[in-house]
């Protein structure tokens, strides 16, 4: 991509500071950042020599931010379908991971996931998995921005031996990428039911000392809450609060089963929720009370979860389902309107990760993570409200172009980097090998 370019779409949805859709405007991208958002004629007059990219019939939006996923689990897509969470996790996923997970597994699975996400307009993803250095490498190979979970769990794996080892390795990885603007980190205790009080206290201290978000599954099922009350005498969020983890740095993943006090705790703490509607539905975990979250002042972003429980890494599909569930579960047709859902896909998810000063909206000074969605297709016509059309009618197949940090990474639904294209092509063969290996394990 040239050092500067003017992008001139039919519509621009900047998200902030003004949520209204702009027409007759253009964006000047310069040195990887958004230099100006202004009326097209005035921008062109000020910069007559800057290359121009016309995007007729297209809506320009900030890049989508996947607030929660397990990228490498793309290699486990479909292996544990139609099971409730307890059986899915303990009888199928954990045993398979025990035999499959390695650097190579994570490297291939994360690259497969990154490609799927990128082609659907996701420019940044928040991951939680073993061997996070391989997820970093996959994201970097495709030019994506990522937040990596410093995963913490009490049981051993091929990656680490105990909670202390997980933390040590994750923090060492963070130190190695301290100066990499495309990589950030979260502390990622798996869930309250898999992490001890002592470890959770240590996570709380580290989060405050290092200024890191805390990314954890919580209140996903009714059974999880019953178990916590039996073992600890507290609901999971009450336990996290008592241990010092409930604050603006907390990203509560799923948060399906919330009572009035849970909503108050999250809202008062300034915490965020990573809402994963398809995973919640597929595992029959329930329907998160998003309308009440929003009323309680809780920031909500969208995540896909991993491919093993979704089975797509498609944020536009998540957005449509999330919007409809919010309306249906609350009985309010005006709950979570399209503009708010787009904000959840972009700026709110970025804010949960501490990245809202860099990405999440089309504002001067921010990094140029941008997505152009083609709304000219017959199945999307006519267009009365481009943002409503994006949320309720468009799909990932309508994503045409993607820019990350000012680089053109997807052009007309094709990767622009030859090396990345070759890597994805070669991955197909290795995916078949992983399929065969998994089949052998499942068969005995």
Describe the structure using short key phrases.
444 residues, alpha/beta, nine-stranded mixed beta sheet, 15 helices, 17 strands, globular
Helix/strand layout:
Elements: E1 4-12, E2 22-23, E3 25-30, E4 33-39, H1 40-46, E5 52-62, E6 64-69, H2 85-100, H3 103-119, E7 122-127, H4 132-141, E8 145-152, H5 163-176, E9 183-189, H6 197-210, E10 214-218, H7 222-232, H8 236-242, E11 250-254, H9 260-269, E12 272-275, H10 277-282, H11 290-295, E13 299-302, H12 315-330, H13 338-352, E14 370-374, H14 386-392, E15 399-404, E16 407-411, E17 414-415, H15 418-442
Parallel strand pairs: 1-5, 6-7, 7-8, 8-9, 10-11, 11-12, 12-13
Antiparallel strand pairs: 1-2, 1-3, 3-4, 5-14, 14-15, 15-16, 16-17
Helix pairs in contact: 3-4, 3-15, 12-13, 13-14
Distance between the termini: 51 Å
- Rounded mean pLDDT is 97
Number of DSSP helical runs: 15
Class inferred from helices and paired strands: alpha/beta
Global morphology: globular
The radius of gyration is: 21 Å
Total beta strand runs: 17
Biggest sheet architecture: 9 strands, mixed
Q: Assess the beta-strand content as a share of residues.
A: 15-25%
Low-confidence stretches: none
Helix residue percentage: 40-55%
Structural features, described:
With 444 residues, the protein is of the alpha/beta class. The chain contains 15 helices and 17 strands. The strands form three sheets. Strands 1, 2, 3, 4, 5, 14, 15, 16 and 17 form a nine-stranded mixed beta sheet that branches. Strands 6-7-8-9 form a four-stranded parallel beta sheet.
């Amino acid at each position: 991509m040239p050092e500067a370019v003017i992008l001139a779409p039919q519509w621009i949805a900047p998200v902030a500071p003004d949520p209204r859709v702009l027409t007759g405007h253009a964006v000047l991208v310069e040195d990887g950042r958004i230099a100006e958002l202004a009326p097209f004629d005035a921008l062109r007059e000020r910069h007559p020599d800057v290359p121009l990219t016309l995007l007729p019939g297209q809506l320009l939006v900030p890049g989508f931010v996947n607030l929660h996923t397990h990228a490498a689990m793309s290699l486990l897509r479909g292996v544990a379908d139609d099971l409730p969470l307890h059986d899915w996790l303990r009888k199928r996923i954990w045993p398979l991971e025990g035999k499959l997970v390695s650097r190579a597994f994570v490297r291939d699975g994360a690259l497969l996931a990154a490609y799927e996400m990128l082609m659907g307009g996701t420019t940044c993803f928040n991951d939680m998995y073993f061997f996070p250095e391989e997820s970093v490498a996959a994201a970097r190979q495709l030019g994506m921005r990522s937040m990596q979970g410093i995963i913490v769990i009490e049981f051993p794996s091929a990656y680490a031996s105990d909670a202390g080892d997980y933390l040590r390795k994750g923090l060492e990885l963070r130190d190695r990428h301290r100066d990499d603007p495309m990589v950030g980190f979260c502390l990622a205790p798996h869930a309250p039911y898999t992490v001890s009080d002592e470890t959770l206290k240590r996570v709380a201290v580290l989060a405050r000392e290092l200024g890191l978000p805390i990314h954890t599954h919580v209140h996903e099922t009714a059974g999880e809450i019953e178990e916590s009350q039996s073992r600890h005498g507290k609901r999971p969020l009450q336990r996290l609060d008592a241990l010092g983890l409930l604050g603006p740095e907390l990203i509560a993943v799923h948060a399906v089963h919330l009572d009035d006090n849970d909503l108050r705790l999250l809202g008062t703490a300034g915490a965020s929720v990573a809402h994963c509607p398809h995973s919640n539905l597929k595992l029959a975990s329930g329907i998160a009370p998003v309308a009440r979250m929003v009323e309680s002042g809780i920031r909500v972003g969208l995540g896909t979860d991993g491919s093993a429980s979704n089975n797509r890494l498609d944020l536009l599909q998540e957005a449509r389902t999330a919007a409809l569930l919010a309306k249906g579960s609350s009985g309010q047709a005006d709950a979570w309107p399209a503009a708010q859902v787009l904000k959840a896909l972009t700026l709110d998810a970025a804010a949960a990760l501490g990245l809202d000063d860099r990405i999440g909206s089309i504002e001067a000074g921010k990094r140029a993570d941008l997505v152009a969605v083609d709304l000219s297709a017959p199945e999307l016509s006519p267009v009365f409200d481009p943002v409503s059309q994006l949320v309720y009618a468009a799909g990932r197949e309508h994503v045409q172009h993607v820019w990350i940090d000012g680089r053109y990474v997807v052009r007309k639904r094709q990767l622009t980097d030859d090396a990345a294209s070759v890597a994805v092509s070669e991955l197909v063969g290795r995916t078949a090998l992983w399929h065969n290996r998994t089949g052998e394990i499942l068969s005995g």
